[in-house]
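FORM 7B: Structural annotation worksheet

SECTION A. Query
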Amino acid sequence: MSLTQHLKDYADKSSLKIPKDKLELMLEAIKELEESQLAETSLNKGKHIPDIILPNATEKQISINEILKNGKKVIIAFYRGGWCPYCNLELKALQDVLSKIEAKNAVLVAITPEIPDNSLSTIEKNKLTFEVLTDKNNELAKKFNLVYQIPKELNDIYLSFGIDLEKSQNNTQRELPIAATYVIDTSGKIIYDFVKADYKKRADPKDILKVLS
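SECTION B. Predicted structure
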């Protein structure tokens, strides 16, 4: 099953379990984000990425630009956090094709606003063998123009689900990045972008692999 179909199936089943009033608020938040056209104004294909140096789950500094200088393409997957089931499905799907990505002389990194301890939990839970980097306060995601603030009402819903963004990110900003995937060539130019306001939609690994061919 493709990631796209897997995500759709999960969304369909999940919608039956969420109380109607909460589901309507969640869907309205997605609609408002889509109408803001933030996704359409984010960094996109043909643009060059900024310098990226971020800590991994063990707080070692990783330079994306150094990886590019070593002659490898880089896939960057921005995700919201290990609390997000859609993010976990995406990360698992990427892990499943990691050997194919590496065979095409590319490196995969995931980027999240969560603190390194939470990233480590996500890595262990999903048995990830690629780097997961922490973007403190979404500072890098803001350079990509991916960041939005979730409404207080939605944050309250998340809290009722046991999702505490303040603890997971160690800040009070209620900000998240749009889940976005980029393929960067060795010059630092974006050659593929997938940016959707709806967090239930993610780049399918088969499309990423086509770009790397």
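SECTION C. Observations
The longest helix spans residues 20-36. The chain is about 45% helix and 20% strand.

SECTION D. Sign-off
Analyst initials: ____
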